[in-house]
Amino acid sequence: MDIDGLLSSATERIGKNYFQLPIDGQDVPIYRERVYCYELYHQMRLAWPEDSEFELSGEVDKSGHPLIRGNNLDRVKPDLLIHIPGNMGGNHTLIEVKPINCSRAGISKDLSTLTAFRRYAEYKRAVYLFYGDGDLSEIIEKAKEIEFGDRENRIELGLIEFWWHRRVGEPATRYTQAA
After folding, report:
1. Burial letters for 77-89: b for 16+ Cβ neighbours within 10 Å, e otherwise?
2. Is 124 helix (H, G, I), strand (E, B) or coil?
3. What is the span of the domain harbouring residue 161?
4. SS3 123
5. Which long-range contacts (CB under 8 A, 24 or more apart) does 105-113 make?
6. How far is 64 from 74, CA to CA, in rounded Å?
7. Angle of helix 104-120 relative to helix 136-148, nearest 10 degrees?
8. Closest CA to 44 of 14, 85, 88
9. Is the pTM of this model over 0.90?
10. Alpha helix (H) residue ranges in the chain
11. Do residues 174 and 161 make contact, with C-beta atoms less than 8 angstroms apart?
């Protein structure tokens, strides 16, 4: 399955009002992660191959899952999952999304989630997608600092792909300077 192609083409089709939400009374639109994620889900579903054995799911609550307990997997809901529901061997890709102006705490939480799903839930890929025009290298540096300061070994950047959707009308691309 061509996840890279799906992700690139879906992000390219996300319109400006989903990228940054206009707010009445404000001159500058704001980033809203949920708005962006729902549109990303919609655009990916529109392009989803009909014959694919995998399904795209949004914010699946894994609490209470009999095989996923502990290991930083409790009470987490990844933004998007590409998987075969009911088959742990069919866990393919999880995607977490953040705007370029996200907080350090948000980055830390997502890095822990992405690492845990790769290590313990048999996901083959973990994609961390940032959107917005800014300096992604600053985000990468924060991620490296968070990993370095992680005394509990909950974060492993080598398991995570960083992607960047910089502007409306452009596709997201994999950021190769992360490791």
Report:
1. ebbbbbbeeeeee
2. coil
3. 3-175
4. coil
5. 107/139, 107/142, 107/143, 107/146, 108/146, 108/155, 111/143, 111/146, 111/147, 111/154, 111/155, 111/157, 111/160, 112/72, 112/154, 112/155, 113/72, 113/76, 113/78
6. 8
7. 60
8. 14
9. yes
10. 3-12, 16-19, 33-47, 104-120, 136-148
11. yes
DSSP letter (8 states) at residue 21: B
Residue type, 44: M
Residue 6 near residue 48, CB atoms below 8 Å:
yes
Q: What is the pLDDT of residues 109-147, one digit of tens each?
A: 999 999 999 999 889 999 999 999 999 999 999 999 999
Residue pointed to by tokens 């005394």: 151
Checking DSSP bridges between strand 161-165 and strand 125-131, what pairing results, if any? parallel
Write the single-letter amino acid at 172: A
* Listed ranges 43-47, 84-88, 172-176; the one with the highest mean pLDDT: 43-47
**Do 43 and 13 form a contact (C-beta atoms < 8 A)?**
yes
Specify the number of domains making up the chain.
1
DSSP calls for 57-104:
EES---TT-TT--STT-TT---SEEEE-TT-GGGEEEEEEEEETT--H
